[in-house]
Amino acid sequence: MNTHKGGVIWFTGLPGSGKTTLANNVQHVLLQSNIRCVIIDGDDIRHKLNRDLGFSEEDRMENLRRAAEVTRMFIEAGIFVLAPFITPRESYRTMIRQHFQPEDYTELYVKCSLDTCIGRDPKGMYALALADQLPNFTGISAPYDSPVAPDLKLDTEQLALQQCVDRLTAYIRSKVKVKS
């Protein structure tokens, strides 16, 4: 039986900023604390549910709209969602926020400089984009708008992974409402 309310942390940040790594580590801690949670990852959604979409502005918006709808179903079932998506445009983040009750939604900016993200390049995507072999890549040939007013910001250049995990876990625990 679920004993807490659902909600979502919507991660935004450049590719390679640490969104998915942070989500995976936080999920592990939350599950150990009996907080039911799921990760709805941008890469997984893109390759499975939304494989029919490309990277045009319209397709990016539709990809995120579908992800928000799936996320809302989990929230309604009382499951906490960690949603690491690049969500590169402020207009996309505004649209996403409108899908949720204010108390259920947190926008988390995973801040990291482009240079550091390029240096990390966990999937080799920046190398391809810089060689003009990957068009419309966020941060290189497609824009990333830094969030205007995120609910929470974690700088993965300045903070160690465990510090980010601890801060985000504490934040989530303060937001989760235990049902009686």
- Tell me the β content: 5-15%
**Topology order in helix (H) and strand (E) letters:** EHEHHEHEHHEH
What would you report as the Rg, rounded to the nearest angstrom?
16 Å
Rounded to the nearest angstrom, the distance between the terminal CA atoms is: 12 Å
Strand order of the largest sheet: 2-3-1-4-5
Q: What proportion of the residues is helical, as a percent range?
A: 40-55%
Low-pLDDT stretches = none
Tally the helices: 7
The CATH class is Alpha Beta
Major sheet attributes:
5 strands, parallel
Question: Which class do the helix and strand fractions yield?
Answer: alpha/beta
Q: Total strand count, please?
A: 5
CATH topology: Rossmann fold
CATH superfamily heading: P-loop containing nucleotide triphosphate hydrolases
Q: Quick check: average pLDDT?
A: 91
* Bulk shape: globular
* Structural domain tally: 1
CATH architecture: 3-Layer(aba) Sandwich
Summarize the structure.
With 180 residues, this protein is an alpha/beta fold. The protein has seven helices and five strands, in the order E-H-E-H-H-E-H-E-H-H-E-H. The radius of gyration is 16 Å and the shape is globular.
How would you sum up this structure, described in words?
With 180 residues, the protein is of the alpha/beta class. The protein has a single domain (7-174), classed as 3-Layer(aba) Sandwich (Rossmann fold), CATH 3.40.50.300. Helix content is 42%, strand content 14%. The protein has seven helices and five strands. A five-stranded parallel beta sheet has the order 2-3-1-4-5, with helices on both faces. α1 crosses α7 (161-175). The longest helix has 20 residues, at 57-76. Its EC number is 2.7.1.25. InterPro entries: APS, APS_kinase_dom, P-loop_NTPase, Sulf_AdTrans/APS_kinase. Pathway: Sulfur metabolism; hydrogen sulfide biosynthesis; sulfite from sulfate: step 2/3.
